[in-house]
Design goal:
- With 286 residues, the chain is mainly β.
- The chain has one domain.
- It is 2% helix and 56% strand.
- It has one helix and 16 strands.
- The protein has one helix at residues 220-225, and strands spanning 4-8, 13-15, 36-40, 44-57, 65-77, 84-95, 102-107, 111-134, 138-167, 170-181, 193-202, 208-219, 228-230, 237-239, 254-258, 271-273.
- Strands 1, 6, 8, 9, 10, 12 and 14 form a seven-stranded antiparallel sheet that branches. Strands 3, 4, 5, 7, 11, 15 and 16 form a seven-stranded mixed sheet that branches. Strands 2-13 form a two-stranded antiparallel sheet.
- β9 and β10 form a beta hairpin.
Length: 286
Amino acid sequence: MGDIETVNLDMFEVGGEEGSDFHVFNIASDHYHRTEVLQRTGAIDISCNLEKVIHGAMADDSDRYATLIIMEWCFKPQRHTRRISEATIELVFAPDKHGGDIEVERISFDGSYSLLQTTQDETVTKGADVSLGISYAANLDLGGKWEKTVSYQSTDAITVNGGIHLINNIPPKRKAKWTLLENESQKTGVPASLTVAVLLSREDQDKFYCRLGFTCKTDKKTAAESFFRKVPKDDPIIFQPNPREKGTRPSRNVLYGDNELGSVDLEKLSDVTFTTLVTDVIKTQK
């Protein structure tokens, strides 16, 4: 762990290194469903895009409205020696000032998930000096050392942990959280991309907001190159369930009117990719 440093990119900071960009603005007060959720460039590029939003209802016979949100997070080191060993993503949802309550009903990757498990053979040797005392007249020091060697196999894997939480211990649950942990024995970083799905239930059709939090642990060299300075808070993502209110720069990835969102399998909408392998790269030209 000696080469790891914690970097907090809690959407209240902006990268100060040359060429970096972190702060993302809404271009207008009615800029709904902003596609470019987060962008941070540098030794490691970090980005998040809003892939799809569906507004509707939990079920035909339900008194709760619903919204399904799909986001893709990408982590791309620009040099071989750079990596993120741990990353935590938080989405905090809140209603408009006069809106009804909103609750995170379900998320994908809820619980603990492992991928790319590895097995290592390990050996531990324990020992101690040995001396033998004989009566009161002499002490015989054998000058030796006993040793005990234990061999065993250990397993490790990349881990994705997800959960739904209260805000300040006050219901309902309005925070979705995921933590990505690298395979500690391999030290090859977190996956290159993570696609997550969130299902919200709503009391009304008023607009609502999502604010992001992101914390990561990187190699020390990457952390040392990232200087942060305080700026005003980043603009939250504004969600508008009313189909007549398209707003400024309408997103093409928004759908309306699905009244069976409560039955959607979120895991089928989600994905995690460590790397993409390109095959058939050797070609013959005549």
